[in-house]
Amino acid sequence: MRSMNLVDSWGQACLVINQSLPYNSFNGLMKINSKNRKILQQSLSYRTFSSVTVSAIATNEKVVMEKEEFNFKVYVAEKAICVNKALDEAIMVKDPPKIHEAMRYSLLAGGKRVRPMLCLAACELVGGNQGNAMAAACAVEMIHTMSLIHDDLPCMDDDDLRRGKPTNHKVYGEDVAVLAGDALLAFAFEYLATATTGVSPSRILVAVAELAKSVGTEGLVAGQVADLACTGNPNVGLEMLEFIHIHKTAALLEASVVIGAILGGGADEEVDKLRRFAQCIGLLFQVVDDILDVTKSSSELGKTAGKDLAVDKTTYPKLLGLEKAKEFAAELNGEAKQQLAAFDSHKAAPLIALADYIANRQN
Amino acid sequence: MRSMNLVDSWGQACLVINQSLPYNSFNGLMKINSKNRKILQQSLSYRTFSSVTVSAIATNEKVVMEKEEFNFKVYVAEKAICVNKALDEAIMVKDPPKIHEAMRYSLLAGGKRVRPMLCLAACELVGGNQGNAMAAACAVEMIHTMSLIHDDLPCMDDDDLRRGKPTNHKVYGEDVAVLAGDALLAFAFEYLATATTGVSPSRILVAVAELAKSVGTEGLVAGQVADLACTGNPNVGLEMLEFIHIHKTAALLEASVVIGAILGGGADEEVDKLRRFAQCIGLLFQVVDDILDVTKSSSELGKTAGKDLAVDKTTYPKLLGLEKAKEFAAELNGEAKQQLAAFDSHKAAPLIALADYIANRQN
């Protein structure tokens, strides 16, 4: 008896079948079970047919395949393995070692890889393959990591704990932490520009511009500047709160999705729909972050909890109350899903599940 | 009597002639002076015919033109005006105002614009026009400015004075200074990707990668990390000193030249020669910086002088003695110019003069 693990992306799954089984065995599979043949044929036609997971066991020439609903846990686990491997290989330790170690310390600290997954899922939804967007998926995670390292600095949010570990400057010193952030920021563009495969230069260039825009004064930096300016001010209104969230959090989530769609070969109207989807889940992400800060402990979050309250920071729970904040989160999730209605529901399953995950996450 | 200012770039100069003089006047010029006709014809053929400046005075149908040697002062003044105008327009003050003001404070603080000029000169040397490389020229200056802002931070070199003015964090605070650097870094890539004109996406993408490489762990960041690690260590050798200089200073100067050549449409062998030219003047730049630190006052430099000595930093004058350091600088300048020998000497005049300027500058 021979077992095959086919839970990797569908492109790879088909490759495993073709490589592992001789032609007769493959034919045998087709003869044994017409339902399975249909599933396999679909998988061959749609490399992003992710709403089905298949477990196959080959016994001599007998293969059993099961159709299941889209399994988000399996999807996330598979994508995280691919992304972590790509990130690990993208930045190796070389001279000077300390800066590379500092970059890797934060980059490989077990983040949830939400942004890379959004990037890959958007790419595959519009017909691209994982290779088209993997460099971009790594790039958005590098940018995200850089923003965390710099935001945690003593002159900014002054945080000691991140993802359950001491923050970068606590381990490597403030000077190296600033430089590790700078290097990650620059390398994100280098990696996107040089390691993207199977995409035209013009599309990669649009992706470079989209990524850059999400970092600067129309993205992360604008959000952090406004956030710092509002800290300690109890009179921050809903409009300013939304400005902060849209820039500090939503901009990079939006870029992750949009870049994936661009690199996957998406048509303009597809990219537009996915942009609006991403804007909704981007704001949703931060609303949930605000909620978690008041409902969870530091150990549950892996970072300092209750910090918003401690510094009298304006948050959605503070402005709207906890229940209304939760309702607003649900509305945003609904709006996000509406944007996906025009796509094939099987193909859109990963993005739908990612939106639900962002809405319902516990840390 | 009508006078024309033709000291702008040659592309613009020709435009002035065509727009200012009726066809007859233009013909008149050709008839009057066959030598002038030749100069003007050359200027029309070679938009980068920068080794000649022309002043033309039209008196009815009579035009007098003079051929002069390449005037570096005029060249630098013209290019600086163009670059400063482009930088001023690239980053306007908008919401949130403080971060844009902080970015502009350092970006428009009267830098010498050596990197943008190298970029433009390399572009024009290989046959490109100023428009092809102006966005890139701004981008390299944004990166340079970002590295100054971050290097001046208290957790790094802790400098209070830069270009004769209080450093960015002294005016805007450390948090905003970190973010202004981040925003300049990201915007450099956005501007290069979106504001470059008349160049194919594939060449722009190569330029993006080249620029990014010059910032991270193969460029500025590597140099600064090694520099910080060596500060206070009196036993730093020549090899490490060169590592620091090549990464901290030469990498971005190299990128400036190479990107200009790529965007100007340079052939591979032209780009290679200009890369080697840039590597020489890059190292030269820092050797001269070391020399100036021990020979000039703070007011002459516009930044804290004698600082290297005060912190017992290893420099070329310290390792080689002042005279040998000056000889080394002269050798590097000679090597740089050798790389330009294959180019038309008229067209190469700006780069030759820029190398001399870097070798002989007084601040």
UniProtKB/TrEMBL annotation, chains A, B:
Protein name as annotated: Geranylgeranyl pyrophosphate synthase 2
Q: Which CDD domains match?
A: Trans_IPPS_HT
The family assignment reads: Belongs to the FPP/GGPP synthase family.
Gene Ontology CC entries for this record: cytoplasm
The UniProt keywords, alphabetically, are:
Isoprene biosynthesis, Magnesium, Metal-binding, Transferase
| Pathway stated in the Swiss-Prot or TrEMBL entry | Isoprenoid biosynthesis
Species this protein is from: Solanum lycopersicum
- GO MF assignments: geranylgeranyl diphosphate synthase activity; metal ion binding
Q: Which domain of life is it from?
A: Eukaryota
- Cofactor(s) this protein requires: Mg(2+)
Record-linked PANTHER family: FARNESYL DIPHOSPHATE SYNTHASE, GERANYLGERANYL PYROPHOSPHATE SYNTHASE, CHLOROPLASTIC-LIKE
Example of a GO biological process term:
isoprenoid biosynthetic process
